[in-house]
Each structure stands twice: as structure tokens, then as C-alpha cells.
Amino acid sequence: MILPKPSILIIHESRQAATYASLLEKTGAKVHAVTSFDEANELLSFLHPDLVLLAATMPQGDGRLYCQQIRATLVHPRPVLVLMHSGDDVNERIKSFRYGADDVLADPIDKNELAIRVLAHLRRRQEELSSRLTQLPAATLSRRMLEQSLVSDRTWAALSVDINNLRVYNEVYGDLAGDQLIKALGAILVDSASENDFVGHIEADDFLLITDSATAEEKAEKICQQFDRASKRFYPTEDIERGYLIATGIGGIRRRLPLISIAIGIVNSTTRRFQSYVDVLTNAHDVRSLAKQKPGSGWVSDGVMEPGVYCKDPLRSRILVVEPDGAMACLLQENLSLEGYVVEVASSAAEALDLCRHEPQPDLVLLESTLADRGIDGWEFCRMLKCDDHLGNIWVIMATAHPDQVRALEAGADLYLPKPFDIPSLLSEVNSLLRSRLYRVGRAS
To answer: How far is CA 319 from each of CA 58, 215, 315, 392, 412, rounded to the nearest angstrom?
Structure first.
């Protein structure tokens, strides 16, 4: 796995600047050498060096004061400040540290000592700019790697990776368990990376993999498979067997939520020209959001992505209310119709099933569990819907006074709403479910 080249700025008189630049370039760093503070100011306005090596005495002024200026004006992460000080006066060297230097070296200095000291500082800086959780390069180094990729001759692809449903996982099992999951994903990405790939941990569960464009999709598929195998170790056996988590909301609302998975968005330097690292990350995140539209782990590439197929306005969606209580059915129909939905009402399973099978199908069924129709109750009706290839995509909200929310969710309901409930809460949940299917997208996997 590769890392971005570190950047060094040397501020010294001409001959020494050239000598030190030639030496430090051999460490693999990108070196910029200037001979005045004015030139340095121009570079610092756009360059973000890891280390500044400067002379304590310059024709334009005191290098120690310039150290103080850098500390006051450059935001985090500021560069390491190494002051080159001629003379053996210990008090002068101590004063240099008080002005803000991170290290003070003799000037001139043995070339081997200079190289080793600079490498030690760069190593320490890399540690500071790495994630404490995964030890992978964090946001600053990831940004720099993207910037270097943008100006390279190599064709590359950027994979934006994150974990689906991590917030719910943390709510159920705790943040420490979630951290272990994030570390596992980081390890999987490193394992999948080749010698010339870069893996960065930008923040939280947001990762970046920069790889060769020709192998990007193959690696994305491998990462998904590895994560799905590894993720099973992070759940109790009963949750794996059930196949979903139960989340509790305000008012006792329960919803089925899928187990953790990952989403990967791939953008490729061969398909478009990116303007900046922000452009790369923004597009990768947009493509990744399409991968989240499908269940389970998956990836979407901007090279094979199908255009989105936009569905109708959710407020024109059709809702079927299955409620044997005539008064309650009338109340629900009136309130949902006032919200702009097209609402039909059925009082039995047979009637509801007939309405579901005729076009246009309902987008959502609001279902009471206590149906009595040829032995088909609400639980069985819900199972019938979810097991039907043509009807299984219909949202089902089980609104019931029955206290067993697990039974409702195991029957296939997408949401359990305990009675009595307030109408505003119901309308909010209905609108949320319908808006989650505003569009469909193609996905390669």
C-alpha cells in the first residue's frame, strides 16, 4: 500500500537551499526551496507542506519570528517547523524553541543526520494524520493522495466505501462494538489493496480506496463478499437467524431494519475529468448513494451505471387501508386523503388481496392484524403479500393493538405501529416510507 509523498519547504540562502533540497529529495519527499520569506508566503498560500526547514538568520529578518508567524496564521494541521541555527550558544537555541520551533538543528549539519531527523519528523506527522481507530491515513492524507492522483499519468479509480445501518447497530450493541466493525472494514480494505493502492479512513465509517481503474470493480465485489462473511461474527446467533434488527421509535413504533452491509461508489479517471479532490469525493459519494438503494452489500460504478428511473410523486401514491372497524377505516381514509394520497379501503383479507392484484397496485398497505376472513388474519395476509413475487414490494404497516411487535415484523411488516396511535405519527411514517422509493437505479454487482 502506498502513501502520498510528503512535502517539504526549505527557506534558506541560495547555495544551502539547493544543497538541502538535493539531499531531502532522496528521501522520497517533494521539496520546494525558496530564498526569502516573501517567496515562502506565496507558496504557503496554496501549498500545505508537512515540514518547513528554515534558517534562523535570513537577510529579510529573523527565522524565529517567521516560525512564530506560521504558528499564528496556518490552521491545523500546521507543518513541523525545523530551525537551522548556526553557532553553539545554548541559550539562543532554547530561545528558538520558545518562539515556536519544533526542532533546532546545527547549520551546517551532517547530511545523514539531517535526513534521519527529517524522516523521523515526517514519520511522526504521518502518525498524527492517521486515524486513531484504524491507523490508516485520515482526511488530510487522503486529500493529498487524491490531489497527486489528479496530476499523475496513471489511470485510477476512487472507491468510496461506508457501512449501511451502522447507527442502528451502535444503538443496539454500543459504540465500542461499532468501532470494532469499522476496524474490521479497514482491515478488509487493506487486505484487498495491492502494492500500488491507497487506503484512507476519512472519518467515522467513511473509507477511500484508490486503485487501478482496470481492477476497481473486481476489488469492489471482493470487498463486499469479504465484509458479508466477516460481519456475521459481529451479531449474536439469534439475530443472524432472524435476519434483521428491531429498532424502537417514538410512541412504541417498531421497524425491521436490515443487518449491516456496505455500499461502494466507484468513480473512474477514464470516464470523466475531475477538477479537484472535492469533485472526486462528491461524485463518489453520489454514486455510493445509489448503491444504498439496493438491499445488502453492493457497489455502483459510474462506468456501468444505468440512469435512474424516476417514480411518481409520493403524494400521489396509492394506499390500501385494511381495517374491519368501519369508523376507524373512515377516519384513516379521510386523513390520508387530505394528505393527497389515493386511498382505498377493504375490511377483509379476500377483498384486500383482490385490490392488491389489480392494477394499479397499492404502494402501501395499512393493515389491522385482527381480520376474520376464511381463516386469514392480518398476520397471514402480510405473509402472503411478502411471499408473492408481484406483491412483495408493497410497503406494509401493521397497525394493531396486539402487543407482540416481533410477531408483526416476522410476518413481514415493514413497520409495527401499536394502537392507539396519533394520526400525525402515522402520517409521518407513511410519508417517510413512500419517499424512500422516489427512484430506482441499476446496479452492477
So the answer is: 78, 45, 10, 15, 18
Amino acid residing at 273:
R
d(CA 67, CA 62): 9
Domains of the chain, first to last: 7-128 (3.40.50.2300), 139-305 (3.30.70.270), 314-440 (3.40.50.2300)
Span 326-355, pLDDT tens digits: 899 999 999 999 888 899 999 888 899 999
d(CA 186, CA 193): 11
Cis peptide before 108 (omega within 30 of 0): yes
Pseudo-torsion of CA 120, 123, 124, 128, nearest 10°?
170
Residue pair 261/297 in contact (Cβ under 8 Å)? The answer is yes
Distance CA 249, CA 418 (A): 11
pLDDT tens digits, one per residue of 347-377: 888 899 999 998 889 999 999 988 866 668 8
Residue 229, CA distances (Å) to 110, 232, 302, 380 in order: 53, 6, 26, 33
Rounded to whole angstroms, how far apart are CA atoms 119 and 396? 61
What's the CA gap between 320 and 313, in Å, rounded? 17
* Cα atoms found within 13 Å of the Cα of residue 261, Cβ hemisphere only: 21
Nearest to 149 by CA among 303, 283, 49, 274: 274
Q: Which helix (H) or strand (E) holds 114?
A: helix 111-128
Which residue spans within 223-278 are E strands per DSSP?
A: 244-248, 254-258, 261-268
